Amino acid sequence: MAAGAETFSLREVLVAFTACVSEQREVRVDPYLAGWKGLVRFLNCLGTIFSFISKDAVTKIEIIENYRNSDQQEKYLTVQSMVEYELANDLVDLQKRSKHPDSGCRTFLRLHRALHWLQMFLEGLRTGEDNSKTSVICSETYNASLANYHPWIIRKAAGVAFCALPTRNTFLETMNVGTAEEAVAMLGEALPYICEVYKITEELYAQHKLLDLP
Ligand code: 1PZ
């Protein structure tokens, strides 16, 4: 077993998302990225067929981490402060990618859309029948969300990768939170927090008309 693998549990990942929303209902960037990093580690456990997906997620996590390590790091403490700072300083390409192809706003939006998929996927997993197929839950939720933003070639590759997913019970056990029943209970506890993070970000982006950033 790889070092640390025995202690890896999806519980800590989901706990990171529970720490995202501040008392002022702002979304904190650091726990958000910590949550995504954990999801990437989990995805890597599922096999190399998913590496094209985890690589893209890592690239996006690193872009935002770089802002968090820059001179302007305090502007990137929350999604609210990031949006305010980048818009006020004309750091976002609104029509097409040109001078600021990797703005925090457009990069975060990609993770935000993926969080919507994650929310639906985990909910599908939580409420699914014992013998249901993870691959079906995954492709149905993907087609209903993220797929709308992806070109044909990526949708195709994603569809192929989904076929490699194990059955629901094995998948729940891979989460390392105990039995399948315990994993389901943990999902029930954690999902409302993920929904809340998604909802706050969605409202913020809608308010600033940023939901279609190129
Ligand atoms: C458990 C099974 C995992 C299924 C994951 C389902 C999501 C499939 C996503 C396929 C993404 C493929 C790679 C590249 C996509 C990029 O083009 C887009 C848009 O970015 P742009 O080109 O505009 O810069 N990237 C994304 O949409 C972000 C995708 C992040 C996906 C992270 C999934 C993490 C899964 C955790 C599983 C527990």
Automatic annotation (TrEMBL):
SUPFAM superfamilies: Glycolipid transfer protein, GLTP. It is a peripheral membrane protein. The keyword Methyltransferase does not apply. It catalyses: N-(hexadecanoyl)-sphing-4-enine-1-phosphate(in) = N-(hexadecanoyl)-sphing-4-enine-1-phosphate(out); N-(9Z-octadecenoyl)-sphing-4-enine-1-phosphate(in) = N-(9Z-octadecenoyl)-sphing-4-enine-1-phosphate(out). GO terms for biological process: negative regulation of interleukin-1 beta production. GO terms for cellular component: cytosol; endosome membrane; Golgi apparatus; nuclear outer membrane; plasma membrane. Residues 27-176 form the Glycolipid transfer protein domain. Keywords: Cell membrane, Cytoplasm, Endosome, Golgi apparatus, Lipid transport, Lipid-binding, Membrane, Nucleus, Transport. It is found in: Cell membrane; Cytoplasm, Cytosol; Endosome membrane; Golgi apparatus, trans-Golgi network membrane. The keyword DNA-binding does not apply. GO terms for molecular function: ceramide 1-phosphate binding; ceramide 1-phosphate transfer activity. PANTHER family: CERAMIDE-1-PHOSPHATE TRANSFER PROTEIN, GLYCOLIPID TRANSFER PROTEIN-RELATED. Belongs to the GLTP family. This is Ceramide-1-phosphate transfer protein. It comes from Mauremys mutica.
